[in-house]
């Protein structure tokens, strides 16, 4: 990897948005390419909100400093932590500041180049979350703030891999788009407040090129699906957090906004334990 300036390459053409099936291989290939192409724009647009060494669970701005979903900060010292879908490794950098030993993993090489640009002592690994390149029982904790799980066709494959690399008693905490949001348009204004589709329609959202090849894929799971995925993968769910929109946060992030955040949840955070 090399340190490179932020240069956004233009898209060849606008992709077509549709709902259709997309398997594990297609989803992985599409999202690796999408994040490589869009990492620069993402970091420019959201880098200030995310910070360089801040642990934020979602657009609401819930901070791990306050939430302590991984445990009290003083208990993180000396812990081996895997961050999945780390992006520019902001969360891992915060963990390192608490004395933990984080490893930042992401499917996107370009996102990890931004981690190098920011700097810090965090090891970086470019790999698919469905095939973690670590030995059994390598970590005490695992975390993922909107990383990997919204984009994979088989979340149980990822969860079982995470369980494999966690030590007994290890904790996994992950955040995803709140499932209820799939029934509403992805708009921050009043147009995003009316139901436009079935909450129970699990057909993936796909953006595809002129040849019909997926260039971005996002998968919907209902809240019940997520709970069953956790249990079927060998975890015990100990908490489910639905952050409320705080008064201080006046920013919009895609379909997340103060207007919508004060009425319906935007993020779901699952706190799981490997027994």
UniProtKB/TrEMBL annotation:
Keywords: Methyltransferase, Transferase
InterPro entries recorded: Methyltransf_11 (IPR013216), SAM-dependent_MTases_sf (IPR029063)
Domain Methyltransferase type: 82-174
Region Disordered: start-end pairs: 1-31
MF (Gene Ontology): S-adenosylmethionine-dependent methyltransferase activity
SUPFAM superfamilies xrefs: S-adenosyl-L-methionine-dependent methyltransferases (SSF53335)
Source superkingdom: Bacteria
BP GO terms, sorted: methylation
Pfam families in the cross-refs: Methyltransf_11
CDD domains: AdoMet_MTases
Keyword Methyltransferase among UniProt keywords: yes
Protein name as annotated: SAM-dependent methyltransferase
Higher taxonomy: Bacteria, Bacillati, Actinomycetota, Actinomycetes, Kitasatosporales
């Amino acid at each position: 990897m090399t340190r490179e300036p932020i240069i956004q390459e233009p898209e060849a053409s606008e992709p077509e948005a549709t709902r259709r099936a997309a398997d594990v291989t297609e989803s992985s290939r599409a999202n690796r390419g999408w994040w490589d192409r869009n990492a620069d724009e993402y970091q420019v647009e959201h880098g200030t909100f995310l910070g360089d060494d801040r642990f934020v669970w979602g657009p609401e701005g819930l901070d791990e400093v306050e939430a302590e979903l991984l445990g009290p900060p003083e208990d993180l010292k000396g812990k081996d932590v895997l961050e999945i879908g780390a992006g520019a490794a902001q969360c891992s950098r915060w963990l390192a500041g608490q004395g933990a030993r984080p490893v930042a993993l992401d499917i996107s090489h370009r996102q990890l180049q931004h981690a190098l640009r920011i700097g810090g002592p965090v090891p970086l690994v470019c790999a698919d979350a469905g095939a973690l390149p670590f030995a059994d029982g390598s970590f005490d904790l695992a975390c993922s703030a909107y990383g990997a799980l919204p984009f994979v066709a088989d979340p149980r494959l990822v969860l079982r891999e995470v369980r494999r690399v966690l030590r007994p008693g290890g904790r996994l905490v992950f955040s995803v788009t709140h499932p209820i949001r799939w029934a509403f348009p992805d708009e921050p204004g009043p147009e995003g407040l009316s139901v436009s589709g079935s909450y129970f329609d699990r057909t993936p959202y796909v953006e595809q090129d002129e040849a019909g090849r997926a260039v971005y894929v996002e998968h919907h799971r209902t809240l019940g699906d997520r709970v069953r995925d956790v249990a079927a993968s060998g975890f015990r769910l100990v908490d489910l957090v639905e952050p409320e929109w705080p008064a201080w946060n006046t920013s919009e992030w895609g379909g997340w906004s103060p207007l919508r955040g004060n009425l319906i949840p935007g993020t779901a955070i699952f706190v799981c334990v490997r027994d």
